[in-house]
Amino acid sequence: MFDDINDLYQQVILDHCKKPRNFHEMPAATCSAQGHNPLCGDNLKLFLTLDGDVIKDASFVGSGCCISKASASLLTDNIKGKTKAEAEKTFEQVRDMITTGVVNGDVGKLAVFAGVHKYPARVKCAILSWHALIGALKGEAKPVSTENEQT
Amino acid sequence: MSKTVDWSALRKDFPILDQKVHGKPLVYFDNAATSQKPRAVIDALVHYYERDNANVHRGIHELSNRATNHFEAARTRAAKFINAKSADEIIFTRGTTEGINLVAATWGAKNLKAGDVILLTELEHHSNLVPWQMLAQKTGAKISYIPVTGDEGVLDLSKLDSLLTSQVKLLSMVHISNSMGTVNPVEEICARAKKLGITTLVDGAQSAGHLPVDVQAIGCDFFAFSGHKICGPTGIGVLWGRQEILDAMPPYQGGGEMILTVGYDKTEFKAAPHRFEAGTPDISGPIGLHAAMDYLDAIGRENIWKHDQELANYAYEKLAALKNIRLFGPKQNRAGLVSFLLKDVHAHDVVTLADQAGVALRGGHHCTQPLMHKLGVESTARASFYFYNTKAEVDVFVDVVKEIQKFFGG
User: Fold this and answer.
1) What range defines the domain where residue A108 resides?
2) Is there a catalytic annotation at residue B220?
3) Does the interface predicted TM-score (ipTM) exceed 0.95?
4) Is the pLDDT at B410 greater than 60, yes or no?
5) What phi and psi, each to the nearest 5 degrees, are found at residue B326?
């Protein structure tokens, strides 16, 4: 019945939403940030452990739709070991991909989110954890939201 | 289904329903958000703009006379639609939200002071919460709530006596809950409030086009509804108020149309309802709404209500037979909608998948965030019905829900 929707709910996304990776609190985190889309109810907290400029560890907790959970799960896998600058570059690649469908450079498994741009109402779900990442790296105290995200 | 109405013939009056979405026949189950429009309403709008368009009330020429006559005829029709005593009690607004805001800004600002209480229910849509919160901030009045009992979304009236204190000046409540499908006993509650001299407002956004509404029988002082939820155009609504209350209310917005004489230092205002309608109004809106009210009453709102309830009960029973589903709203006397959550599947994922199968649902908090928080959920998925929907469509919808459960491995 849902053959056409596999570009949104790819197997990798379904897998990460059912079994999110790095899904736990991190008491020793050096920074964290809250991502909250109150209108749809996506609510997650991202934790990072930085060693100098390098992201040694990443995890998240929270609740939300399949797309937002899978996005956070894949994010935490992706950014471990990256420098702040590398993570910020990945954020830009992911943001462009999610809003336009165009993949610039190698984004690895994150390419599964390229189909999200066809579902404008869901872009804000896929990008929430990435804005939380930038919030955590900048030390933002307020929760970030992507409900006004333009597509 | 009622034997007196040919429901499948009515369906053909709605051009929009005859289409495919994502390759599947459209099943439109988002009627609590907005209804579709029959040909008669679309034609009335086209005819107005093609033949009669002019500004109202001031013109002396033929087109202006026609536009004015049609505009005021709609006011008379709206009065009949809810059994108001006179067309002078009908104020045209942008919708239910503006109607409630108008009461808060005029009646509320004049009559409420610090220490007074505004009594609402926990079921309210944001449109019947936020205007009162804003008014409470300005005046120092407080807000209390008639509680709901839990997932059934029914008001706990055992608390009503203790809530109806002498401080309560206004009681404003929803007639039918847009997120739960509860039908509130507005007649009983208004009668109890009236004994204590409390002014009452009923939010009729979900009721006006679905069941016969008689404001005299309800016994309220204000009743607000929206055109677009009852087969009319968007941007037009009705606020009804009792004549003596409207007459004592200060104006809402200032401008043309609402004045008798204007000087540089002083203005005399018109009587109700024109005092509350500043500026050139939405003229096509009431004309389209007039056609919608004629259309609905030709079917009979008692028939529509019966059809709504049959579909809702049918859908509720079929969904209740599924595993891993949480259903909201009352088991008895349910209005035409069903709110639900699937275990471990977010409402937005349900709605996105249903859309792929041509089924239009709503997912979210339905503008009732405090109620959602009270029930411990962020959102629900909702199917809401109208008279052009069929049992066959409910079957398609329930099959889609089962497929969604399979898709997410439930």
Assistant:
1) 3-138
2) no
3) no
4) no
5) -115, 120
